[in-house]
Amino acid sequence: MPVKEIYTAHEERMQKSLDSLKRELGSIRTGRATPALLERVQVEYYGTLTPVNQVANVSIPDPRSILIQPWEQSLVAEIERAIMKSDLGLTPNSDGATIRLNLPQLTQERRAEFVKVANKKTEEAKVAIRNIRRDANDLLKKIEKDKSVPEDELKKAQDEIQKLTDRYIKESDSVLGIKEKEIMEV
């Protein structure tokens, strides 16, 4: 496998880790309503677990509430049950056709808990990025044993992989910083 292909393949994997982190952090509750809060809430729909946003219209009528309009009347009770089981800590209010979620103001302790969760998810993403770096370096070492690429080119490739890793870790920290600010904002 040529050095350039190793770099490109591992850069894609690092980008996927960062995208995954952004999705995870998007589902952490801040003081503001967002459809991303419901991304992990799944409903039984014709025998299959399906995300709420795929069986209903999810809208944000104001900054503190989410309005869910199921496409089928029979899903109202199922969506309510799924929200109650989730870790969101929200109580759904239903009028039989739509479901409204009111987001209460977060306490300082709850905000601190959400920041801890965000830090944990970011650390997991950083570990994944470092593991990708290790995989890339292992591949480069195999190439080195085969003596198919000059040693100075391999050293340069390892430096590039390290720079790439540093960039993605810095980006992870930046995403975390934005999320922390969002969570702590009153």
Helix and strand sequence: HEEEEHEEHH
Shape: elongated
CATH structural architecture of the largest domain: Orthogonal Bundle
Distance between the termini: 52 Å
- Strand arrangement across the biggest beta sheet: 3-4-6-5
Global structural class: alpha+beta
Average per-residue pLDDT, rounded, comes to: 87
What count of domains describes the coordinates?
2
Classify the fold: give the CATH topology of the largest domain.
Answer: Topoisomerase I, Chain A, domain 4
Q: Count of DSSP helices? A: 4
* Proportion of residues in extended strands: 15-25%
The share of residues in helices is 55-70%
Largest sheet report: 4 strands, antiparallel
- Measured on Cα atoms, how large is the radius of gyration? 22 Å
Could you give the count of β-strands? 6
CATH H-level superfamily of the largest domain: Ribosome-recycling factor
The CATH C-level name of the largest domain is: Mainly Alpha
Low-pLDDT sequence parts? none
